[in-house]
Amino acid sequence: MPEDCWFNSAQKAAFRRPLAEKSEKAHLGAMKVAPHIIDLVHDAMGLPGDPASHRVVCAMSGGVDSSVVAGLLKVAGYDVVGITLQLYDHGEAVRRKGACCAGQDIHDARRVAAALDIPHYVLDFESRFKESVIDDFVDAYVQGATPIPCVRCNQTVKFADLLAHAHDLDSSALVTGHYVESRILGESGNRGLFTPADMARDQSYFLFATTQEQLNFLRFPLGLLSKPETRAVAEELGLMVASKPDSQDICFVPEGNYADVILKIRPDAAKPGDIVDMDGNVLGQHNGIIHYTIGQRKGLGIGGGAPLYVVRLDAEKAQVIVGPREALKQTDIAVGDVNWLGAVPLSDEPQHVYARIRSTRAPVPALLRKDGAGAMLSIAEGEFGVSPGQAAVFYDGEGPGQRVLGGGFIALSRPRVQFSRSQVSAIHA
Questions:
Q1: Which of 106, 138, 348, 367 has CA 20 to 30 A from 338's CA?
Q2: Would strands 79-86 and 181-184 be described as parallel, antiparallel, or unpaired?
Q3: How many structural domains does the chain have?
Q4: 409: burial class by Cβ within 10 Å (0-12, 13-18, 19+)?
Q5: Residue 179 has pLDDT above 90, yes or no
Q6: Other CB atoms within 10 Å distance of the CB of residue 31
Q7: Rg over CA atoms, the chain
Q8: Residue among 218, 83, 214, 210 nearest 152 (CA)
Q9: What is the mean pLDDT of residues 154-174?
Q10: In terms of Cα–Cα distance, which of 429, 427, 425 is closest to 408?
Q11: At 265, which helix (H) or strand (E)?
């Protein structure tokens, strides 16, 4: 496991020395990166004056995207500091393809930083990650929700704690390899979040909870590049991760088996119960609602007759409720924990938006209005498989370059219970 590399006072002081006192190093592959790409980097950064006068912190995961960002920043002339977060360790699993945030990725990030000749630090955030992300993930599944840990990680670790460290190093920006775009919004000086040029790589769904203050400090240089262009730049810079596969699994869920992780942390989570139809008739039994998600059809163990889908999970009664596909359709969706970034405040008057309720689905026309402490999303054509705990993200249009207006979490029909730190408090999902 990587050592705990928190910054001490001497390291912070060294970073705060005037840039002129630092030794000059050769620019890596300066002539190999197309000038128009370097121009895109400068435009994305939007920092005034000489790039060399700006220290920027690059969040380096060890993958190709963040590695390319670090390389582009170096070639573009910025004073770059790489930081990698130690979030979770799998032991033998860290070298499997599709993993992220684990030992091999940290090793790769260090190698890239060394090749780029930039300082690199590893911050041990395992305890923070366990408390804020993993425990929340487990609690949500136990109560019948389907959480998105990557959003929670951005909210509580990457764009909160890491951003604070970037400020502490007197940096001008925290830079990541996400495929989104940010731009200045008129005379206010605030920055808006927009969908990227490469919609196949769009990560805006996972960044809806980014606050205005955070957006003003964050930068996303890959917003106008396609994934093939990013890999081409990695090749041009000679980065050893140029052909590294993209991470696909949740970092703390080996082989995608959520139930195993949940049971390891909460052995009592798999409470057996009944599978019932929408009239309450018992059709079979299950070994715990943690094994099911809304919209699931396969693996129900109640074959025969018309196809049935999971339409609701009742944690209190330990029931899996099934029904026909039409029963999955919803037109009105309650949304909680709303982060609003739009120019016009939410009110009782409905606003026209485009809404996405799954990361893999395209936004659809909808109406959004304030509803108590949250919001109510109305989709005339309806959506199937609306899962509590998933995000509903709002846009002002479809396709690339569309502004993200905000988003929230699809609410459970009752308050969720938070078990972290052995405290029990009612919160809305």
A1: 138
A2: unpaired
A3: 3
A4: buried
A5: yes
A6: 8
A7: 23
A8: 210
A9: 94
A10: 429
A11: helix 258-265
Nearest to 72 by CA among 107, 34, 108: 34
* Same-domain pairing of 78 and 144: yes
User: Given 58, 101, 150, 153, which residue is catalytic?
Assistant: 153
Q: Which residue in 58, 100, 101, 251 is the catalytic one?
A: 251
Rounded distance between C-alpha atoms, residue 198 and residue 401, angstroms: 10
Q: Residue 128 is encoded by which pair of tokens?
A: 């923070």
- Expressed as residue numbers, the domain containing 75 is 9-177+220-255
Q: Which residues contact 112 (CB under 8 A, 6 or more apart)?
A: 60, 62, 67, 70, 71, 82, 239, 240, 241
pLDDT given for residue 19 in this prediction: 42
Annotated catalytic residue 251 = yes
Place of tokens 């960002």: 69
Helix (H/G/I), strand (E/B), else coil: 290 = helix
How many residues are there in the chain? Answer: 429
Token pair recorded at residue 381: 């054509």
Q: Report the chain's mean pLDDT, rounded to a whole number.
A: 87
Predicted model pTM? 0.86
In this structure, the number of other CB atoms found within 10 A of the CB of residue 102 comes to 24
Side-chain-side CA neighbours of 183 within 13 Å: the count stands at: 13
Domain annotation covers residue 205:
no
Is 381 a member of any domain? yes
Measured CA distances, 5 to 41, 86, 124 (Å):
29, 10, 7
Written as six digits, the tokens of 84 are 């990698």
Residue 265 lies in a domain: no
Model confidence at 23: pLDDT above 50: no
pLDDT at 174 over 80: yes
Q: Which two tokens stand for residue 318?
A: 């330990």
Amino acid (1-letter code) at residue 368: L
